[in-house]
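Troubleshooting: if your tokenizer reports a length mismatch, compare against these two reference records.
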Amino acid sequence: MPKMKSKSGAAKRLKIRAGGSIKRSQAFKRHILTKKTTKNKRHLRGTTAVHETNVKQVRAMLPYA
């Protein structure tokens, strides 16, 4: 039986934490930043967890993670 392939786009964007939650980066921080407030941009820094409603789909994209 051949190995299952993980979705390469998901593998580049998502990491599984030690506790089992999935780490993702924040969206809306790439361009058109002049009209966004400094507070908004500051809160978009760093990483966050994938919402529990999307965890099942993400785990299907990363079968060996």
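Reference record two:
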Amino acid sequence: MSSERPINPRFDDDMMFNLVSPGPPRYATGTDKPVQYFSVVDKETGVVLGYVWAGDEDDAATWEPRQAAGPRAYSEGGIWHARLEEAKERGLLPSQALAELLANPEGNKGRALPDSLTDAPNAGVVETLAAGE
């Protein structure tokens, strides 16, 4: 009996790797630099569903769902994420995307409050706001 094990024919062939693209360009989802944000409210009840924030220094922007608003806040996030991704694909700065979203405030079940644009020292402040209400 030989001490060598037979080669499995499946592993005898050359290997080939396929490169996978990283996907569409996206804004970063966190920053410790200053950001601006606005509130998105439910069209029917006026309850705050979440916040869209953006900061140019770290090329960051995202939707932050308000935990107290529950599943409706998470489902509303899809439209705001999609709109941010589309803005990034067109090469807009995060602040430009934010201004564009405010100019066209309608989401799926929510809408942006036009006078709610506010400054924050970083994204963590917005995350805390969304978590703590």
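Descriptive notes for reference record two:
- The helical segments are 71-89, 94-103, 123-132.
- Strands lie at 35-42, 48-55, 60-65, 110-112, 118-120.
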